[in-house]
Specification:
The chain has 307 residues and is an alpha/beta fold. Helix content is 26%, strand content 25%. The strands form three sheets. Strands 5-4-3-2-1-14 form a six-stranded mixed β-sheet, covered by helices on one side. It has a six-stranded mixed β-sheet with strand order 6-7-8-9-12-13, covered by helices on one side. A two-stranded antiparallel ribbon has the order 10-11. Helix 2 links the parallel strand 2 and strand 3. Helix 1 runs parallel beside helix 2 and helix 4 runs parallel beside helix 5. Bound molecules: 4-methylsulfanyl-2-ureido-butyric acid. The site of 4-methylsulfanyl-2-ureido-butyric acid (CDT) has 11 residues, from loops.
């Protein structure tokens, strides 16, 4: 038996501060149409796909930044994307900044089914960067000022004929993100990212950005027997170069498709979700081979020794 899902990774080039949402939505719709022409059933857009990566600027009063956030989804300006997706009968995954009625600020991603219904919402768990202004930096990464870390954790949803999970950017560097979803039987993880090539706290990592990106997503896919779709907003945005290298990764850890430009670009792959079983029911048969009871004991023992 095969369960085929044709998925597209819709990479975005830069969104400048002067680009309004309406112009971005036009770009998203163009990628959606390309995906439909390529026979995709699901398209994945990046993290914070509607605006520039605004946490690169620090402001004294966060209330002055409300215009970067969405208070409803779809909104008037994003409705054309939802309508076109529904017309084309294609699903999508979209990252954006969310401001709730209670005033909470989250880095959010939603999964929208082919009928236009929002089937899942995920809020970023691992928020990187810093909370306060660091004026000596060439640019800020003040996500910890702009976003509350979600306490909801990682869910897995039945959609698109499989078990779908989501994570956002920095989440992909943490094995727990994949494993928590792996333990729920995830078959495809959708992940948008904005990753500056220059890592200010340790610039020796700059040349390794592409390597680390591939390393974490390929190993996370393999060790949990799942597809991973990692999608960038990259290129030079407000003077900051962002990693691209959007890719679709198989449960074997192999890269099935990868972008080659630093602009808007769609790549796609036909994913047989039943491929996951080859890993979930052999090497990574969690019920048979995982030893959670031992992991807990080892942690306690090591803690005792190190103390
Ligand atoms: N957006 C995001 O999470 N970016 C981080 C950059 C970390 S450097 C502060 C990432 O892990 O790619």
């Amino acid at each position: 038996m095969t369960r085929l899902l044709h998925v597209g990774a819709a990479q975005l080039g830069p969104i400048q501060q002067s680009d309004d949402r309406a112009s971005v939505v036009i770009r998203l719709i163009e990628l959606l149409r390309q995906a439909k022409a390529a026979k995709c059933e699901l398209v994945v857009f990046p993290e914070l796909a509607l605006t520039t990566f605004f946490p690169r600027w620090f402001v004294d009063d966060i209330a002055t930044t409300d215009h970067w956030y969405e208070t409803e989804m779809p909104s008037a300006v994003t409705l054309p994307l939802f309508l076109e997706a529904k017309r084309l009968e294609i699903g999508f995954c979209l990252g954006y900044a969310e401001l709730t009625p209670q005033g909470e600020r989250f880095n959010t991603q939603i999964l929208v089914e082919r009928d236009g219904s929002v089937v899942a919402k995920y809020r970023k768990v691992h928020i990187p960067g810093h909370e306060t202004n660091e004026p000596d930096r060439p640019f800020q990464h003040a996500e910890r000022y702009y976003f509350t870390p979600s306490a909801e954790g990682f869910g897995v949803w039945k959609a698109f004929g499989g078990r779908m999970g989501m994570m956002i950017c920095n989440d992909r560097r943490w094995p727990e993100s994949y494993r928590v979803m792996g333990l729920q039987g995830v078959e495809m993880i959708l992940c948008g990212y904005n990753t500056p090539m220059h890592y200010v706290p340790d610039p020796t990592q700059d040349v390794l950005q592409g390597f680390h990106n591939a390393l974490v997503m390929q190993s996370g896919a393999y060790q949990n027997g799942t597809f991973v779709v990692g999608v960038a907003k990259g290129g030079v945005e407000e003077g900051v170069l962002g990693l691209c290298d959007s890719s679709i990764i198989a449960p074997s850890g192999e890269i099935l498709a990868k972008t080659v430009t630093t602009g808007d670009e769609l790549v796609s792959a036909v994913c047989d979700l039943d491929w996951c079983k080859q890993y979930k029911e052999t090497l990574f048969d969690f019920d048979k081979y995982r030893r959670p009871e031992v992991y807990g004991r080892i942690t306690a023992q090591r803690g005792a020794v190190l103390d």
